[in-house]
UniProtKB/TrEMBL annotation:
Belongs to the DEAD box helicase family. It comes from Didymosphaeria variabile. The gene is ROK1_1. This is ATP-dependent RNA helicase. ATP-dependent RNA helicase involved in 40S ribosomal subunit biogenesis. Required for the processing and cleavage of 35S pre-rRNA at sites A0, A1, and A2, leading to mature 18S rRNA. RNA helicase. Residues 8-21 have a biased composition (Low complexity).
Length: 471
């Protein structure tokens, strides 16, 4: 398990994004990609809502690009064409893709073609995207062995090497069109259709850098053998999407679908034991308003896939109550049900009937959806047990903290970390997404991951090693 950090337009974000502000706090610039040189103006429209409206901006995104940023249309050519020709080509390509929903063979081949190392670096650099390896929590195979001096020295050397490696920079294969999601990463057909239905064509910067890291590339093996293309270890593809990611990108830059696509795709490919329904992915947001926007987006993307997304509401149950308590309740209920109903209606004892109804409703309200979107407090309440302890969420494999800087700020920190620690599945993948991330928040995130990993590896010997052998 590795932790990567993706920084999208860090300098601009630091200047323009208000630190520690809740999403509802107000005016923000629209930091859409390809608009680096334009001065940021805040229109009255954006003041009303911080969310970028897709209709207008999607048109902006498809506008002709300057030649030096035209990597979608003519990037395969060695020499950049004059700006005017590139513009014309881009226009043709855009209008073609607007009218043509089916990707033809030639286009498909082009989308499947990986960028070579130089091209990848250039594209990532032009979008000011930087990906670094923050930590590697893989248990060392010799950790459990009694340590002899020689071994100890070897291990110390390894640690020094690992620390040196910790700031290694990665160059993921840039995702330059949504069509590549299906062609290169084999995402579910239905998910790809849903994206296309929502008119998503060109990824934003954060999507361009994050999606290749979080999805499993179909082409890794060929890429590894191809001298021209970027190696799997330098691109991060060797981890097959099995990474924890801290992603910092400006407000309104499309982080929501950047974390939803990999989560939905992973959920669709995971095998679920019969009767094992309930949340397998939890997305935490600091406000209910933001949580409800995320759930809407998740529903659009998972339409027709069989996956359900739900917003945590008061009174919902997320875990089975302890068996003893349940069976005691059930037995009691069965014994008393008829008697109670009879006597309640006879004696007008409404209290008992209300209690019965409540008990029934509680069971009916247990979350069955695979994706649960919640604020930390709402989930924490649902996890609290009678003895004050927290129930664990063993079935949860994906945890996303949206607005992670706010969630890990002292105001929410305890709740967030408690929920995080309640996710006890050793294969849990964590994504932290934020417009800003102070070094204290980053340190806290890393140390939470570290503590968790250390405690899990001491109790569980089946944890995966650093990198899967193939992706
Ligand atoms: N690739 C894309 N093409 C066009 N529109 C997009 C794309 N990605 C996202 N959007 C749209 O941009 C808007 C803003 O995206 P989103 O809310 O995900 O930003 P965000 O980075 O999550 O913001 P926040 O920091 O507030 O959570 C949404 O309306 C979304 O549908």
């Amino acid at each position: 398990m590795n932790v990567f950090k993706l920084l999208s337009r860090s300098s601009k974000a630091a200047q323009s994004a208000p630190s520690q502000k809740l999403p509802s706090a107000g005016a923000v610039p629209n930091p859409q990609l390809f608009r680096d040189d334009e001065p940021v103006t805040v229109s009255p429209d954006t003041r009303k809502s911080k969310k970028r409206k897709r209709g207008k901006d999607a048109q902006d995104m498809s506008a002709p690009l300057p030649a030096d940023l035209d990597f979608f249309g003519t990037s395969k050519k060695e020499n950049a064409e004059p700006a005017i020709q590139a513009t014309e080509k881009e226009r043709k390509r855009t209008s073609q893709s607007q009218t043509d929903t089916e990707i033809n063979g030639a286009q498909e081949e082009m989308e499947a073609e990986p960028y070579d190392e130089d091209e990848s670096k250039r594209i990532l650099r032009s979008h000011k995207l930087k990906v670094t390896v923050l930590e590697d929590f893989a248990p060392q195979e010799d950790e459990a062995q009694p340590e002899k001096k020689k071994k100890k020295r070897k291990k110390e050397k390894k640690i020094v090497e690992k620390k040196k490696d910790a700031k290694k920079q990665l160059y993921p294969q840039p995702l330059t069109s949504f069509a590549q999601l299906r062609i290169r990463y084999g995402i579910s057909r239905r998910l790809a259709e849903n994206l296309s239905e929502q008119a998503y064509k060109l990824p934003t910067e954060v999507q361009l850098g994050a999606l290749p890291l979080l999805l499993r590339s179909r082409k890794t093996e060929q890429e590894g053998q191809n001298g021209n293309s970027i190696s799997a270890s330098a691109s991060g593809a060797e981890y097959g999407g099995d990474v924890d990611l801290l992603s910092v990108a400006p407000t309104g830059s499309g982080k929501t679908i950047a974390f939803l696509i990999p989560v939905i795709d992973a959920l669709l490919s995971e095998k679920v034991a019969e009767g094992d329904d309930g949340p397998r992915a939890i997305i935490i947001a600091p406000t209910r308003e933001l949580a409800s926007q995320i759930v809407n987006e998740a529903r659009k993307l998972s339409k027709g896939t069989g996956l359900k997304a739900t917003l945590m509401k008061k009174g919902m149950e997320v875990v089975e109550r302890p068996e003893e308590e349940d069976s005691k309740d059930e037995a009691e209920a069965a014994r008393n049900f008829e008697e109670e109903e009879e006597s309640a209606s006879d004696s007008g004892d409404e209290e008992k009937v209300v209690q019965q109804k409540k008990r029934k409703r509680r069971r009916a309200d247990k979350v069955k959806a695979a994706i649960l979107v919640t604020t930390p407090a709402a989930l924490l309440n649902a996890l609290k047990q009678n003895d004050g302890s927290l129930a664990s969420l063993l079935s949860v494999r994906h945890l996303v903290l949206d607005e992670a800087d706010v969630l890990l700020d002292p105001l929410f920190r305890e709740q967030t970390v408690s929920v995080w620690n309640a996710c006890t599945n050793p294969l849990l993948r964590v994504g932290l997404w934020s417009a800003t991330m102070g070094s204290n928040i980053e340190t806290l995130a890393i140390s939470t991951l570290n503590t968790r990993w250390t405690s899990l590896s001491s109790t569980n010997t089946t944890l995966p090693l650093a990198a899967p052998s193939s992706a």
